[in-house]
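Quick one:
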Amino acid sequence: MIIRFTEAKSVWTASDLAQLQTRLFADVSPIAAVSDNTWTYRVLPQAGQDLDKILRVLRARPEVVHVDVDSKVRNP
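Output:
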Protein backbone atom coordinates (compact mmCIF):
# COMPACT_ATOMS: atom_id res chain seq x y z
CA MET A 1 0.00 0.00 0.00
CA ILE A 2 1.05 3.56 -0.56
CA ILE A 3 0.49 5.71 2.51
CA ARG A 4 0.87 9.49 2.56
CA PHE A 5 1.35 11.03 5.99
CA THR A 6 0.50 14.52 7.24
CA GLU A 7 4.13 15.34 8.03
CA ALA A 8 7.45 14.72 6.35
CA LYS A 9 9.40 11.74 7.68
CA SER A 10 6.28 10.49 9.43
CA VAL A 11 6.80 6.76 9.38
CA TRP A 12 5.35 4.34 11.89
CA THR A 13 7.61 3.21 14.72
CA ALA A 14 7.95 -0.43 15.77
CA SER A 15 5.41 0.24 18.53
CA ASP A 16 2.95 1.81 16.07
CA LEU A 17 3.35 -1.15 13.72
CA ALA A 18 2.72 -3.64 16.53
CA GLN A 19 -0.51 -1.83 17.45
CA LEU A 20 -1.60 -1.72 13.81
CA GLN A 21 -0.91 -5.40 13.34
CA THR A 22 -3.04 -6.20 16.37
CA ARG A 23 -5.87 -3.96 15.21
CA LEU A 24 -5.77 -5.04 11.57
CA PHE A 25 -4.97 -8.72 12.14
CA ALA A 26 -2.41 -8.31 9.37
CA ASP A 27 1.36 -8.14 9.02
CA VAL A 28 2.39 -4.52 8.33
CA SER A 29 5.94 -3.53 7.41
CA PRO A 30 7.57 -0.58 5.64
CA ILE A 31 9.15 -1.23 2.25
CA ALA A 32 10.55 2.10 1.06
CA ALA A 33 10.06 5.85 1.05
CA VAL A 34 8.49 7.32 -2.07
CA SER A 35 8.99 10.90 -0.85
CA ASP A 36 9.58 12.63 2.46
CA ASN A 37 5.97 12.04 3.57
CA THR A 38 4.92 9.02 1.47
CA TRP A 39 5.88 5.41 2.10
CA THR A 40 5.08 2.04 0.64
CA TYR A 41 4.06 -0.59 3.17
CA ARG A 42 3.51 -4.29 2.78
CA VAL A 43 0.21 -5.30 4.35
CA LEU A 44 -0.43 -9.03 4.46
CA PRO A 45 -3.96 -9.74 5.69
CA GLN A 46 -5.13 -13.11 6.92
CA ALA A 47 -6.96 -15.33 4.45
CA GLY A 48 -10.47 -14.08 3.78
CA GLN A 49 -9.88 -10.75 5.47
CA ASP A 50 -11.78 -7.74 4.09
CA LEU A 51 -9.39 -5.31 2.35
CA ASP A 52 -11.95 -2.49 2.60
CA LYS A 53 -11.90 -2.76 6.40
CA ILE A 54 -8.10 -2.52 6.43
CA LEU A 55 -8.26 0.57 4.21
CA ARG A 56 -10.89 2.20 6.44
CA VAL A 57 -8.79 1.63 9.58
CA LEU A 58 -5.66 3.05 7.95
CA ARG A 59 -7.50 6.04 6.46
CA ALA A 60 -9.04 6.87 9.87
CA ARG A 61 -5.66 7.41 11.51
CA PRO A 62 -5.01 11.11 12.18
CA GLU A 63 -1.45 11.03 10.80
CA VAL A 64 -2.59 9.57 7.46
CA VAL A 65 -3.65 11.82 4.57
CA HIS A 66 -4.20 9.14 1.93
CA VAL A 67 -3.96 5.36 1.43
CA ASP A 68 -4.00 3.47 -1.86
CA VAL A 69 -3.41 -0.10 -2.85
CA ASP A 70 -0.25 -0.18 -4.96
CA SER A 71 -1.45 -1.57 -8.27
CA LYS A 72 2.12 -2.11 -9.47
CA VAL A 73 2.84 -4.77 -6.85
CA ARG A 74 2.26 -8.28 -8.06
CA ASN A 75 1.51 -11.13 -5.71
CA PRO A 76 3.53 -14.29 -6.36
